[in-house]
C-alpha cells in the first residue's frame, strides 16, 4: 500500500478531502494497522469531478455490481454520485470514498477544525480532528462503536 | 438514508471489492502495509535501534522472571 501516492494524487487534483477512520488514527496516533484509506470528500459536483480525475490517475477500479466492475476511467465522471459511499481498488491500496459521515453535519465545518499533517515522507494530508473523530464514533450504534478508539480519544482530549 | 441502509451499503461495497481483489496482489499490499506502518514509527521495528530496544525489553522480562 502506498498512502503517500494516494494523498499526493488527491492533493495534485485539488480534491477537497479529509482523511477519516483507522488510517487517520494510525498516522497521527499510531493506532491499529488498517488496510484501507477512508476519505470524506466535499460533496459538490466540482469536487466529485476532481475526485474522479484523481481516481483515474491512480488507475482505480469500481463497479455497481461484480459484472459491472472495471476501471473508473471508463465510467462517466458522474459515477461517484450514484451512492453515499464507494469502495474502490487501486494499485496503491483500497480507498473508501464517503460523501457523508454519520454524526458530522457539514464537511466545511469539519474542514475548519481539520489537522494539517504530513506523512514521514513529507506528503501533506488533511485529517479529521480528534474531536470530530470522537463525534462520529459515538454517533454509531453501540455494537458498531470502536471502544478502544473512543477511550483513546477521550483520554487524549481530556488532557490539559 | 438510514444508518442501517448506509451500514449495509458499506458492507456490500467492501465485500464486492474483496471479491474483485487478486489474492496475490492483496497479499503483496498487506506486506507493504506492514512495512509502511513500521516505517512511520519514530523508531521502526525493522531497524538496528528497533531490534536493540525489543531485545532490551525481552531481556528485562527474562531477568524479572529470573531466567
Write up what this structure looks like.
The complex is a heterodimer of chains A (160) and B (67). Chain A is α+β, with helices and mostly antiparallel strands and 160 residues long. In chain A, helix 1 crosses helix 3 and helix 5 crosses helix 6. Chain A contains six helices and eight strands, in the order H-E-H-E-H-E-E-E-E-H-E-E-H-H. In chain A, the strands form three sheets. In chain A, strands 1-2-6-5 form a four-stranded mixed β-sheet. Chain A is globular, with a radius of gyration of 16 Å. Helices cover 38% and strands 19% of the residues of chain A. Chain A has a single domain, classed as Beta Polymerase, domain 2, CATH 3.30.460. The N and C termini of chain B lie far apart (60 Å). The model of chain B has no long low-confidence stretch (mean pLDDT 81). The longest helix of chain B is centred in the first third of the chain and has 18 residues. Chain B contains three helices and no strands. Chain B has one domain. With 67 residues, chain B is mainly α. Classes of the chains: A alpha+beta (160), B mainly alpha (67). At the A-B interface, strand 3 and strand 5 of A face helix 1 and helix 2 of B.
Tally of strands of chain A: 8
The largest pleated sheet of chain B is described as: none
Strand content of chain B: under 5%
**Low-pLDDT sequence parts of chain B:** none
- Total domain count of chain A: 1
Task: Quickly list its features.
heterodimer; A: 160 residues; Beta Polymerase, domain 2; four-stranded mixed sheet; two-stranded antiparallel ribbon; B: 67 residues; mainly alpha; 0% strand; elongated
Sum this structure up briefly.
The complex is a heterodimer of chains A (160) and B (67). Chain A is α+β, with helices and mostly antiparallel strands. Chain A is built from six helices and eight strands.
Write the layout of secondary structure elements.
The complex is a heterodimer of chains A (160) and B (67).
Chain A: H1 3-12, E1 17-20, H2 21-29, E2 36-41, H3 45-57, E3 61-62, E4 70-71, E5 85-88, E6 94-98, H4 107-113, E7 115-118, E8 124-127, H5 130-138, H6 147-158
Parallel strand pairs in A: 2-6
Antiparallel strand pairs in A: 1-2, 3-4, 5-6, 7-8
Chain B: H1 3-20, H2 23-40, H3 48-65
Amino acid at each position: 500500500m502506498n498512502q503517500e501516492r494516494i494523498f499526493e494524487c488527491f492533493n495534485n487534483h485539488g480534491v477537497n478531502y479529509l482523511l477519516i477512520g483507522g488510517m487517520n488514527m494510525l498516522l497521527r496516533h499510531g493506532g491499529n494497522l488498517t488496510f484501507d484509506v477512508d476519505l470524506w470528500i466535499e460533496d459538490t459536483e466540482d469536487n466529485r469531478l476532481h475526485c474522479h480525475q484523481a481516481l483515474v490517475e491512480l488507475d482505480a477500479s469500481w463497479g455497481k455490481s461484480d459484472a459491472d466492475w472495471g476501471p473508473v476511467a471508463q465510467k462517466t465522471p458522474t459515477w461517484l454520485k450514484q451512492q453515499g459511499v464507494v469502495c474502490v481498488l487501486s494499485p496503491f491500496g483500497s480507498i473508501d470514498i464517503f460523501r457523508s459521515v454519520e454524526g458530522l453535519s457539514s464537511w466545511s465545518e469539519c474542514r475548519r477544525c481539520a489537522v494539517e499533517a504530513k506523512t514521514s515522507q513529507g506528503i501533506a494530508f488533511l485529517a479529521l480532528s480528534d474531536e470530530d473523530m470522537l463525534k462520529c464514533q459515538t454517533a454509531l450504534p453501540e455494537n458498531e462503536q470502536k471502544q478502544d478508539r473512543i477511550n483513546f480519544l477521550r483520554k487524549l482530549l481530556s488532557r490539559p | 438514508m438510514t444508518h442501517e441502509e448506509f451500514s449495509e451499503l458499506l458492507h456490500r461495497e467492501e465485500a464486492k471489492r474483496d471479491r474483485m481483489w487478486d489474492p496475490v496482489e492483496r497479499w503483496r499490499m498487506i506486506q507493504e502495509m506492514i512495512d509502511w506502518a513500521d516505517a512511520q514509527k519514530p523508531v521502526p521495528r525493522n531497524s538496528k535501534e528497533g531490534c536493540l530496544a525489543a531485545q532490551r525489553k525481552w531481556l528485562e522480562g527474562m531477568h524479572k522472571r529470573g531466567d
